[in-house]
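Quick illustration for those who missed Monday's session on complexes.
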Amino acid sequence: MRSNWVLNHFNEVLKKRNAGYLVLIDPEQCEVTKCAKLVGEVEKAGADAILLGGSFLTNDLHPIAKTIKQETALPVVLFPGDSMHLTPHADAILYISLISGRNPNYLIGEQVKAAPWIQHHGLEPIPTGYMLIEGGNTTSVEFMSGTIPIPRDKPDIAGPHALAAQYLGMQMVYLEAGSGATYPVPNEMISTVKAQISIPLIVGGGIRTPEIAAKKVAAGADFVVTGNVLEKNGSFELMKEFADAVHG
Ligand code: 1GP
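Prediction with SN-glycerol-1-phosphate bound:
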């Protein structure tokens, strides 16, 4: 493992580009050949890293991850739904604790199960406080984790959660409306959270246009994630528009 390589890369992106654009590949939604084509273009389009994962996985992760690694020089970062979603074909892993929930298994259980594997394979763990925010529909992450999202009109509840993540030593906070959310995380909640922390803030879930991505950055997002929109209507042009909108 190159020590903190990916976290340093993220910090460099913030210095140089002000904000970063992360493309999420959900192995459940992406067939290998289609995935390879998409990933081949991600770097050229100007994205800053690839996230790989999802809340529910029945496909074999290894061949997809291996193909992705071969197609790009960008960091490939696992975004696991649980401790089964691991592959050595990646550079780092968002070492997520679902801090908005009160399900001990997603706060610390899955992390304990994954820790020896991560050490053995030398992936860089990036400790991340993951917060599920109500997005207008029941998302897979809500259902699978059995946790209640923070109400979207309660930024006053979200802020202290994010601050607690920082005080616990986490390196990033992820505000998640859930993949395919009807509504992305509200701008007011992003601003409130951003004002309370000094670690980078990732925002994702339900972001479907470059204009909305730009608004999330204006509100305080350091990194914007898109998944669904590219899996469904992915084109090089759209990816580039997202990257340009996020980088301003
Ligand atoms: C989900 O935040 C990501 O974990 C991305 O969501 O698929 O809705 O873009 P979308």
